Amino acid sequence: MSSPAAGPIGRVISFAGIDEPVRATAANVTSGELRAHHVGLSEAMVTTVPVRVAPMLVLRLAADLGGHDVSTVDVMQATTSVVAGLGVWDGGSAALLRLVLGRGISRPDDVDLQLLGVLVDKGGQQVATSCGRATLGHPAAAVAALASPWGGRLGEALAAGWLVAAGPMTPYIIVAPGEYGVAAFAYLGSVSLATMAASYDVVRD
Asked: What is the pLDDT of residues 93-144, one digit of tens each?
């Protein structure tokens, strides 16, 4: 008998254009897609096709949000910590493959998230820079827009304890098999992904 599918533990926000600025990805974050990033190590991923990556600021909520108009202040009051994140999407279907987490801060009010910067390197070359302002002016504003009713649709119900990744903070960056990407955040440190073109089975006697 198969075990039940893991329930969602968060959302990853993506931007769909000016007419629909914020939506949750089709694949919500579950424990199967979440990867804790160990400092000094890269998350390793086997893939035969290129993937897309982008840095994200991940907010952990301490209170439920949604069902009515939600403000940036509401989101910040509900946020218990902010974590460095790297979203990884399928290069063809744009489906979320995983969310890699780095270090975080437990006092988000001590840092101006709007100005918190990130540098993205691929293969040792800087390919993008950005800051929290890229996510609808503030990461909490992106979360508020997701949770609030807008254009005749209901706001997303966001549960206490969930991780909500606001982003992407930069354009999607293509990482081919055998390449690696690093997102270095101010105050939060780095989070990275290394791709491998093939896996190798261990042959046992």
From this structure: 777 788 888 888 988 988 999 999 999 999 999 999 999 999 989 999 999 9
Q: Could you give the CA distance from residue 32 to residue 97 in angstroms, rounded to a whole number?
A: 9
Q: How many residues does the chain have?
A: 205
Peptide bond into 50 cis (omega under 30): no
Beta bridge partners of 121: 126, 182
Residue of 169, 179, 168 lying closest to 122 (CA atoms): 179
Q: Positive or negative, the Cα torsion across 82, 143, 134, 41? A: positive
106 CB burial (10 A radius; 0-12, 13-18, 19+) = exposed
53: nearest Cα among 166, 171, 143: 171
- Residue 105 belongs to what H/E stretch? strand 96-105
Residues sharing a CB contact under 8 Å with residue 73, sequence separation 6 or more, in sequence order: none
Q: Are 118 and 109 in contact (CB under 8 A)?
A: no
Half-sphere exposure at residue 10, Cβ-oriented, CA atoms within 13 angstroms: 26
- Phi then psi for residue 144, to 5 deg, are -60, -40
Structure-block tokens of residue 8: 């969602």
